[in-house]
Amino acid sequence: MSYAPNLGPINDSALYKHLILFAIATLRKIRPFEGSVLMLTDRICVKYGKLVDLTEAVTMLFISQNTSIPVPKVLCAFIHQRCTYIVMERIKGNYIGTGWVYRSEESKAKLLTQLKSIVEEMRKLPPPAGMGVGSVVDGSLYDCRVPGTSLRFGPFPSVQEFHRHLRGGMDLDSRLDPEVQELIRQHDRSFPIAFTHGDLSSLNILAREDTIVGIVDWETAGWYPSYWEYTTACQVNPQNSFWINEIDKFIAPMPDELAMERTRQKYFGDY
């Protein structure tokens, strides 16, 4: 397995870049657009914008090369005039939450069992020697839910430094609220590192019938403390509140870490 991917353009020939930019200019007013993703054809889409980063493309390549997890195939990725473009094959499937309440319990169980295997496979990826908290290329991370002055943050040499960032650099002080003091003590515990998607919501999992066919939106992925997959998954979109009842069925519950993270959010916020 390769654990030292490089950050950089992918298949960025001048002709391909020209064709992609021309296609976007021609089609963006008439083709479906979901968030930052434009559907170029029935088989190809492009994610682009100034907040998009090449790290996401490299992450998908890393996952496709080192696991059996279904991810979009990256065809091309490049930066043009400070805007990043990631061209991918479209995965034909529906959001797993679509019609969830109408699925049989057997159908739900099949999908959740597959999700559990996907999470377990990700967590088995061994981090590079000396890895702290960072992206797949040991670079900065992205998550709009993490407080700070920038949407990108890190990398951090240790979990403890990451935790210190989450609480705005605050250190233990007897004058602090007892709950904050306890949070800092918990933050200073030893946590293993695990590769993490970071946003396993029902909107980032694609299924066809009873089969998981795609895990998408890897912009928040990276090497994080082992609880991060669980606690971020528990921050469900209000429009998909049903999903909170399913998370414990595919990610091992971590109630103590979830309580710790909720204390952190209470005092230091999500945004």
UniProtKB/TrEMBL annotation:
GO terms for molecular function: protein serine/threonine kinase activity. The keyword Kinase applies. Keywords: Kinase, Serine/threonine-protein kinase, Transferase. Transmembrane segments: none annotated. Residues 65-236 form the Aminoglycoside phosphotransferase domain. This is Serine/threonine protein kinase. It comes from Aspergillus eucalypticola (strain CBS 122712 / IBT 29274).
